[in-house]
Amino acid sequence: MRKEPFQSLEELDAYVGGPKIQCLECGRWFRGLATHLPRTHGMTHADYREKWGIPRRYPLTGTATRETLSQQMRDQIDAGVLTHDHLPDASQAARQAGRSRKRLVDDERHRRITAERRPGDHHRLPPGAKRADGRDADRRREYQIAYRALKRGDSEPMQRYRARYLEAPSDDPT
């Protein structure tokens, strides 16, 4: 794994040229780093690029993902689903509605709120909360933790989960 920023374009081309891209912070491989960086490392793409010397023109996705997305866009354009006819009217309507830019107050509030959270906490429900489908969020979270431990070879958390949620207490004392 790299310890210093990229020094040449050849190094950068080799880095972004594979079907997957490696996170230079943790060494894991991904199709793209869009969600991984802020959730796991609490970094913006700009911070990551600056730290590792990656210019903006270089993508933070693997070639397979770029090709797939490009093909999807071409298919939508060919099917007439995606057109650019609406763009001039939409941008003018947004400017007239005063939605062209977030206010500075909103930016400051957003920075303050996100600074208080740990990376990856933004998607978690508070303890005791219900998910949108009505199921218990704590139970789901416990299952995910137990399942991941089981995949690593540790069956104890899954046994605790099953004992707590799946094995109903019997009325028979024997």
From TrEMBL:
InterPro entries: ROS/MUCR_sf, ROS_MUCR. Gene3D superfamilies: ROS/MUCR transcriptional regulator protein. It comes from the Bacteria. Residues 89-140 are annotated as: Disordered. One of its GO terms (biological process) is regulation of DNA-templated transcription. Residues 103-140 have a biased composition (Basic and acidic residues). GO terms for molecular function: DNA binding; zinc ion binding. It holds the Pfam family ROS_MUCR. Belongs to the ros/MucR family. This is ROS/MUCR transcriptional regulator protein.
